[in-house]
Design goal:
With 706 residues, the chain is an alpha+beta fold. The protein has 21 helices and 19 strands. The strands form five sheets. Strands 8, 12, 14, 16, 18 and 19 form a six-stranded mixed beta sheet that branches. A five-stranded mixed beta sheet has the order 1-6-7-4-5.
Length: 706
């Protein structure tokens, strides 16, 4: 219970309107004449790793009967009865009190036995004297560990009774980012051009009605000739919930609809049907005018049509292009003084499939490029010579212009690596203001899309699932931390995400990284890798005291399995936590594994294997090496060359592998900037001789020159 630090009642008698007597009992065990039993968790949970608390309680308290409908553990409902006439005859469950709050058997069965401090069982008059008739079948009082760490203090007297129940942050209040809608401001109802095709015309979260229950709103209609739905939802003053849907249709006197093909490629010949409808009450003769963008050849276009009231007809427009186009096409219909215009996007892309050719090599040779059959007019060539294949990715400015899209993992694959690419380009001054602005704009777009995938508990999940994944949430935590350099990341988002991750830490120090369908399985190597990744992420953020038992358990596991990925994670975590001796020991093991080519990685926290797993492991190993100021720079350069060789046209494999590799290499290149002038001088000499170059060669040549 919270501490009592007052001896006088803080409630004045003249302010009391009602008194509720709940009953209070405080008596020493030797003077007690009632039947009560208190069991501490250290006793009834010792060597009993049961998933259900009832199983752990069985046999620990006299007079408590537990029955199961099946002999299989966890396969049937488990009932609990306290010995007594009423319970035996009526087969009624006892009263359950959890942390001072009367609960039900459903909540009781959900309790995690590791979170329980002690259990008290009241069997006779002790139960009814405090809880009345509700305690006639006995009372089970459960005190948990979680609520005892609360910093809340109450200034009350011993005569006052109160109860405390922990309520998760996301149970009653759920905060979400509000959607924002834009709309144009019209000065007239006559519009010459139709370009307003908003899907949401009006949104108002707070509409107050008058005493008659009516409210008046105004909004701008879009240019679409279509049916629209109005949805209203609200709560009355008495708390009643109401909802209604109303539909209406809007159309202009003359409507135009052109069916532009969704996919157009170069050399395509297009015949576009333009449907025109006369919605007026008069017969009209209409003239169609088509304005096509540059590089589009208008071959033929129907221009005249006569329509009766409510009659529709079609005109056809034939055109062709031999160039790539990303513009708009305009259709204008005129009848007397009335004019209706529609502007639609028109995009023409390249025909066929793109073909790229790249060479990654470190030896001198003559290379002949074979150009495959290609579509006439589609051949474009450009040549880039990079000092190493890593710089190919760092200096790929077009990558920074790609807009982020997709689910959380796809967004991360675009956004997170670009943070480190932008860091490198800014440090080397190889990016102009416009490209940097575009890159930062895309990072902001990606961030806004990513936070829309946040679950109610504050975490993130794979494929938009409802149950948050702890390891993926730790990855998101580091991603948002690095994004803060370019994006205004919500501080509350970081706090809620951190709270969610820490809430999944068990009493034994391990994080509950297993998903719902894995909860009954053993803690596998995959689970250990995820647990160590969470430790690595939190220690990198700056947590220390909260991770001590997690670190000890994870270190013991990594040293026993000698898994290279886990050892690399723990080496970085040890450096973050200031465990210098452990850091040196782990680094020695990793150096031995790489020197003897005995590297073994079972699985990463994302379940990766092959190239992605190898790239992640060597990135973490190189990252750990760079944390030691006394490390051999030639050794680090050798590791960098190995890491660079994993780089392909699409990066280092998975999103996590690419992000880790770029983070490690960007840090490596940043530490080399003191040698940049010397490197540039040496590079010019090497390039003149057409000598192949690697990072290791660069450092070797630098040492010769110094």
């Amino acid at each position: 219970m919270p501490s009592v630090n007052s001896k006088s009642d803080t409630v004045k008698s003249q302010n009391i309107e009602e008194v509720v007597v709940l009953g209070y009992s405080q008596i020493t065990k030797k003077n007690s004449t009632v039947s009560s039993t208190t069991i501490n968790s250290d006793y009834f949970l010792e060597n009993r790793p049961n998933a259900v608390m009832l199983n752990a309680l069985q046999g620990s308290a006299p007079g408590v009967i537990m029955n199961g409908g099946s002999g299989s553990p966890g396969s049937a409902k488990f009932s609990l009865l306290i010995r007594g006439t009423s319970s035996i005859s009526s087969n009624l469950d006892p009263l359950i009190v959890i942390d001072g709050v009367i609960s039900n058997s459903y909540e009781f069965r959900k309790l995690n036995s590791n979170n329980i401090s002690n259990v008290s069982i009241l069997k006779d008059a002790a139960a009814t004297s405090i809880y009345g008739n509700r305690g006639a079948n006995g009372v089970i009082i459960i005190n948990s560990k979680n609520w005892r760490i609360s910093n809340i203090k109450f200034n009350i007297t011993p005569e006052t009774y109160f109860a405390v129940k922990n309520i998760p942050n996301d149970s009653l209040v759920n905060y979400n980012y509000s959607r924002q809608f834009s709309y144009p401001v019209y000065e007239s109802t006559n519009t010459v051009y139709r370009h307003d095709y908003r899907e949401t015309l009006y949104w108002n979260p707070v509409v107050e009605t008058d005493k008659n229950g009516k409210a008046k709103i105004e909004f701008y209609q879009s240019d679409a000739n279509s049916a629209f739905r109005i949805m209203t939802e609200g709560i009355s003053a008495s708390g009643l919930i109401g909802r209604d849907e109303t539909t209406y249709a809007a159309q202009s006197l003359i409507s135009i609809d052109a069916k532009i093909p969704q996919y157009l490629t170069r050399t395509d010949q297009m015949i576009i049907p333009v449907v025109i409808k006369n919605n007026s009450s008069e017969t009209k003769t209409l003239t169609l005018n088509v304005v096509v963008p540059n590089y589009i050849r208008l071959m033929k276009a129907d221009s005249l049509i006569t329509l009766k009231p409510l009659e529709s007809g079609r005109l056809f427009v034939k055109m062709q292009t031999d160039k790539l186009v990303n513009s708009n096409i305009q259709f204008a219909v005129k009848s007397g003084d009335f004019r209706e215009t529609m502007i639609l996007p028109l995009k023409v892309e390249e025909k066929g499939f793109p073909y790229h050719f790249s060479i990654v090599n470190n030896k001198k040779e003559n290379i002949k490029i074979t150009i495959p059959d290609y579509i006439n007019g589609s051949l474009e060539s450009s040549y880039y010579v990079y000092e190493n294949s890593a710089l190919q990715m760092f200096e790929d400015l077009e990558r920074l212009k790609n807009e982020p899209h997709g689910c959380f993992e796809q967004l991360s694959s675009t956004v997170y690596p670009n943070v480190f690419i932008l860091d490198y380009l800014k440090s080397t001054k190889k990016i102009n203001f416009d490209t940097e602005s575009t890159a930062i704009k895309n990072l902001k777009k990606g961030y806004q899309k990513m936070i829309s995938y946040k679950n109610g508990d504050g975490g993130f999940s794979y494929f938009g699932g409802s149950g948050s994944d702890v390891a993926l949430s730790a990855f998101a935590l580091m991603e948002f931390r690095d994004l803060k350099k370019y994006v205004n990341v919500d501080t509350k988002l970081i706090q809620n995400l951190t709270s969610f991750i820490l809430s999944k830490k068990n009493a034994n120090g391990l994080f509950e990284v297993r998903r719902d369908y894995e909860s009954k399985t053993q803690y596998s190597e995959y689970s250990w890798s995820r647990n160590m990744y969470v430790l690595y992420a939190l220690s990198k953020i700056g947590f220390k005291n909260e991770l001590q038992n997690t670190y000890e358990a994870s270190l013991k596991r990594a040293l026993s399995t000698k898994d290279s990925y886990q050892l690399a994670l723990m080496a970085n975590s040890a450096a973050h936590l200031g465990k210098n001796e452990d850091y040196k020991n782990l680094l020695t093991i990793l150096i031995e594994q790489y020197s003897t080519k005995n590297v073994k990685t079972n699985t990463t926290f994302t379940g990766s294997g092959g190239i992605s797993a190898n790239a992640e492991t060597i990135s973490l190993y190189m990252m750990a090496l760079q944390k030691n100021t006394n490390s051999d720079q030639l050794k680090i350069a050798e590791i960098a060359d190995k890491l660079i060789n994993y780089n392909g046209y699409y990066g280092f494999g998975s999103t996590q592998a690419t992000a880790l590799a770029l983070e490690t290499l960007s840090d490596f290149f940043a530490k080399m900037k003191n040698y940049m002038a010397l490197i540039s001088q040496r590079l010019r000499l090497i390039m003149l001789k057409l000598k192949p170059i690697t990072v290791l060669h660069l450092l070797s040549e630098m040492e010769k020159m110094t």
